[in-house]
Give the backbone structure.
Amino acid sequence: MSRVGNSPIVLPPGSTVTVVGQKVTAKGPLGELSYELLHGMGVAIEGSIVRVQNKTDPSDPEKGRALHGVSRAMVANCVEGVSKGFSKGLEIVGTGWRAALVGTTLEISLGYAQPVKVPVPDGLKAEVADKPPRIKITGIRKDQVGQFAAEIRALRKPEPYLGKGIKYEGEQIRRKAGKSAG
């Protein structure tokens, strides 16, 4: 059995989980998320504890373990998303580079001729701080938050010589030595 899949999921106060067939729905103060369980998986709810059960064919234990772990992680992400939410921080490093939120569009100046305009997807919120330039993305779906942060970072990845670019909060950039004279 999967070690990750065996871990119980504790429901925070104010959150509920319901199961209809293979569909697990989590409701909480931030919204509602649902996940369609993979074939051979089940969910048991005991008070404020949710457990994902492996009901796959015992003749293929490796596949069952893998599906068990990922199913448990997806249900746990739904529960955490509707109760606390997820956030990802980005830092902009570069002279004169900045970001601004105009309505539901991020305008990021990255040294190009025009600022780059990125619309914020539905279900996500973006906050901008000026000193130092930072962008914070929040939402209830972990995959959506991470994908949008990766799209913004891809606009100008950090480069190894000067360290300029958009990086994740707390990310360490491996620096290279420049040319040596002589």
